[in-house]
Structures are given as C-alpha cells and as structure tokens.
Amino acid sequence: MHKATLYKDKYRVESTRLREWDYSSFGYYFVTICTKNMECVFGEIEDGEMRLSGIGEIVSEGWQKTEQIRANVKLDGWIVMPNHIHGIIILTNDHRKNVETTRRVVSTLKPNSLGSIIGQFKSITTKRIHSIGHSDFAWQSRFYDHIIRNEKSLQKIREYIHNNPLKWDIDENNPDFLEERRKNEVL
Questions:
Q1: Among 32, 43, 133, 172, which is most buried by a count of CB atoms within 10 Å?
Q2: Per DSSP, what are the bridge partners of residue 118?
Q3: Burial of 58 from C-beta contacts in 10 A (0-12 / 13-18 / 19+)
C-alpha cells in the first residue's frame, strides 16, 4: 500500500519513483498505464488473444509512434489489454532528433524523461480518442513503472507481457476477477 499524505487539505498518494534515480537516463523501464476507473474500452480477450476496439487501435498506434517521434526511445515487448497497456521502454542517450511538440502549459517534468514520454503518449491518444466521439475517455493520472536492472528480469517481464492475455481471467486489472474476489472475501 502506498503512503498517503495530506497536501493542501487533500490526501494524495506518495510517488513510488526512486528519488535518487534520473528517469531520463539510459535504462530499461517496464510501465503499466491504466484507464480511469479500470474501464475496459480497448477491446476484449477472446480465446487468449487480445482483440482491439477502435480505441484500442488508437492506443496501439500511439504507443508505436512513441518510438518514431523520439530518438531517445526504443520499444521492446508491449501489449494493449482491455483496460491497460504494458510495455518495455528503453531510454537511450540519443536526444538529437526528437520531434518538438507545442506545449500550452508549463511542465515540471524533465524533458525526455519517462514521465514526459508517458504524459505525451497519454495526451496524444486521449485527444484522438475524444475526436472520434469518446469524450468521456480518460487515463488514470499516474502510471506504474519498474526499472529493469538485469537480463533475467527483462526476460521474465517479456514473458509476462506475452502471456498476459492468457491470464486475463486471473489478472488483478480485470474488473470481473476483482469483483469475484471481493465476493469470495465476503463469504
């Protein structure tokens, strides 16, 4: 459980990011980005395979473009699930050819950092999803990340991503699974 602190008379969850880590530095990062309220809008699992909806296609395309518009990003294994996306992002030290985008708000995020990359991905996909008539779509405000520190961990995460659709029935991001678990805990 994450520690909650009081800030401006509101409780907020403390960041799970490592304070001493530079999230714009070279590295392999495993990220999970979820929809607001865990809404299953990206498609559905059929016979152990993910079938993308129109919204899911936008998310898939947006994820792939992340590598195309940023010279310092390479993508490894990834998958769009019904209400979240898992992916491995590799940050390189190449910042020369990044495509500039206009910003209307001042950001406290470090340029080319994992947070700025995820923020841009969420912003671009949200705008596209809203433009096709799904104005109620939203992402969770935060995302999960894990710094991958060795080859063994990288292989385990790749396998997890690959097998994620096969395990959807017992996935903690699956609202049906969570509801069933809650019912069983009450009994």
A1: 43
A2: none
A3: buried
pTM, full prediction: 0.80
The span from the first CA to the last CA of the chain, in angstroms, equals 24
For the segment 55-73, what is each residue's pLDDT rounded down to a tens digit? Answer: 999 999 999 999 999 999 9
Q: Which residue type, as a one-letter code, is found at position 76?
A: D
Long-range contacts of 65-69 (CB under 8 A, 24+ apart): 65/124, 66/117, 66/120, 66/121, 69/98, 69/99
**CA dist list (Å): 79 to 92, 161, 163, 185:** 21, 6, 10, 31
Q: Does domain 18-169 have CATH number 3.40.50.10840?
A: no
